[in-house]
């Protein structure tokens, strides 16, 4: 691939497209057009936005599972609003009379408690992804709170930072982009960055700012950093691919894309393409397609009494799952898998790696 082709992998036009799917997301999250059968269980996922490649893949996995069991499926998008997310779920609970299986990535950690309590009261079954308070546990809401699935953000945040610092030669200034302050994955990934910094005393954290998981917010932050710190910046750590790509676009404007190491997380298609092009050195693939379907499968099996969740060990109720650390060495394999995703929706615990750890 030529340098020109590499630069074209993530062009300015592609960057702007990341914010152009609002109408599609709003349509996907609307309830006014639903026609739900009273006798059929409705499946639903609630997540931030369909404009984010990670959540778009999450939604596709959910759609695939719903098609495999022949049940209606409803995507709900919070668009970054906890109030909207909770209101849409309550409306769907009422519309389905509680005959609902929900897989939810709460907009904020505190939202999980409200959502779980509403589902339990209505008789619906719910699985949470990523975000929940430390003192909220599935076994305290049997059988309706089926499971909580997450990943060890501290470990992967540290691994991404370690790879970045090695690419920097173990010294120099780094800037870092974080997710929403109150999100568990954002908190954990930042803790991983901090852990890596302690192991590399010659790396200086020049600044850390929150860009809310969003490339459009990361772009001007990176521009300002380049003005403020100039040549002191030797690397960029980002808590997700979307923010990393925003930083890369700012670097591109200065002719530095591919010349300064940048790391992300989420293993999104644009992020993987950037690794292949040499503009991003690492990411983490959580396989959101699998998460979208498996959370619904767990809930439906609990509702249909195919599993007795109350009898399961706690590490099957609050679980870390297996992820893939992605670099240029294995990116092609991950791209192939992402192009033809699949999931064994009946093997619920194949990718469970152990219990959630509260630090």
TrEMBL record:
Residues 47-304 form the Periplasmic binding protein domain. One of its GO terms (cellular component) is cell envelope. It holds the Pfam family Peripla_BP_4. It comes from Caballeronia pedi. Keywords: Signal. Its main location: other. InterPro entries: Peripla_BP_I (IPR028082), SBP_2_dom (IPR025997), TAT_signal (IPR006311), TAT_signal_bac_arc (IPR019546). GO terms for molecular function: carbohydrate binding. This is Ribose ABC transporter periplasmic ribose-binding protein. It is found in: Cell envelope. Belongs to the bacterial solute-binding protein 2 family. The keyword Zinc does not apply. The keyword Transferase does not apply.
